[in-house]
Amino acid sequence: MNLYSLLKSRAAENRPIRVGLIGAGKFGSMFLSQARRTPGLQVMGIADLSVDRAKDALRTTGWPDEVQTHSFADALQSGGTHLTVDAGALIAADGMDIIIDATGDPAAGIRHVLACCEHRRHIVMVNVEADALAGPLLAQKARDAGIVYSLAYGDQPALICEQVDWARTCGFNVVAAGKGTLYMPEFHNSTPETVWGHYGLTAERAAESGLNAKMFNSFLDGTKSGIEMAAVANATDLKVATDGLAFPPCEVEKLAKTLIPASDGGCLESAGMVEVVSSRSRSGEDLEQDLRWGVYVTFEGDSDYVERCFSDYGLITDETGRYSSLWRPYHMIGLELGISVASVALRGEATGAPIAFTGDVVATAKCDLKAGEILDGEGGYTVWGKLMPAKDSLAIGALPIGLAHGVALTKDIPAGSPVTWDAVGIDENDPTVKFRREMERTFSG
Question: How confident is the model at residue 444 (pLDDT cuts 50, 70, 90)?
Answer without folding.
Answer: confident
